[in-house]
Design goal:
The protein is an alpha/beta fold. The chain has eleven helices and six strands.
């Protein structure tokens, strides 16, 4: 079940799988439970940022036993930095455009990131258990399966031994249910991009779950929770609106494009039409 007892507030944390241009799982959960919610998801965020925001949100709002905290952890190969008064969250260290190639070559280490983030997630687990608030952990992708999100792990024998030791020490962390696994069986190309291509052809693809994907993920994550019919209808409408919106943009542009190339105001209006309330952008120093 999503909740064992009634709650007063919902706090959610994660990367772009938690807060994106359309309704995601936090909006769906808040809609179904009928509670106010605070969404601290941020595109490109790594697990260090996510952990930091959990603690900061607790310091500000004081989590209680009447709160629900839900955390969607992300792949480990990310580096978050505080810069110029805000967090820089460029995403996967191997595909981002902030850190130089020299920095990545010298300092990026998948096993080091795995050690760091497993310890971080384990610490937050104990932190929330101590607060006795209801909480759920899951992840964008299987934390140990593809360390840098896009490639399967390949190590020489010495590093493979270290990797196995890490995984054995953090079994409860690396086995968190994930979007990549529950939705796409760890093959995003076959189970996400291929069906998406049938709708949008070669004009548009996006590796993020659409509203219906988010709902299906929640259904598989919480199979005994009965979602309200009104919630289900709003999810379906939100998904239909997104599909129609992208198809309209294809007719206008008549060329391949990505979500970040679209007018932010049009995206905002599209999301608002879904009737699933979007959260405000909460920022804590």
């Amino acid at each position: 079940m999503i909740i064992d007892r009634p709650i007063n507030r919902l706090f959610t944390f994660g990367c772009s799988f938690t807060k994106y241009f359309w309704s995601c799982w936090p909006e769906i959960v808040a809609e179904d439970l009928g509670v106010p919610f605070y969404n601290y998801g941020k595109s490109g965020a790594g697990n260090q940022f996510i952990a930091n925001m959990i603690v900061q949100a607790d310091r500000k709002y004081k989590f209680t036993t009447d709160d629900l905290v839900m955390v969607c952890w992300t792949n480990v190969c990310r580096e978050d930095k505080w810069r110029d008064g805000e967090w820089a969250t460029p995403g996967n260290i191997y595909t981002q455009n902030i850190y130089s190639n020299d920095y990545v070559e010298k300092w990026a280490d998948p096993l080091g990131y795995l050690v760091r983030d497993c310890a971080t997630i384990s610490s937050i687990k104990g932190y929330l258990e101590n607060l006795k608030c209801q909480h759920h952990f899951f992840s964008m992708c299987d934390i140990h399966f593809t360390l840098d999100q896009g490639e399967k792990n390949t190590f020489n024998q010495n590093l493979k031994t270290v990797y196995d030791e890490i995984c054995d020490s953090y079994k409860d962390i690396i086995t968190l249910p994930s979007f990549y696994n529950l939705l796409w069986h760890n093959d995003i190309h076959l189970h996400k991009f291929k069906p998406q291509k049938e709708v949008y052809e070669n004009y548009f693809d996006d590796g993020h779950p659409n509203p219906l994907d988010h709902f299906n993920f929640l259904k598989r994550l919480f199979p005994y929770h009965e979602f309200k019919e009104t919630t289900i209808e709003k999810v379906k409408k939100s998904n239909d609106i997104l599909t129609a919106f992208v198809l309209d943009q294809i007719k206008i542009k008549k060329k391949r494009f990505g979500i970040y190339e679209l007018d932010p105001e049009l995206l905002r209006l599209m999301a608002n039409n879904s009737q699933i309330k979007k959260s405000e952008i909460y920022k804590i120093i």
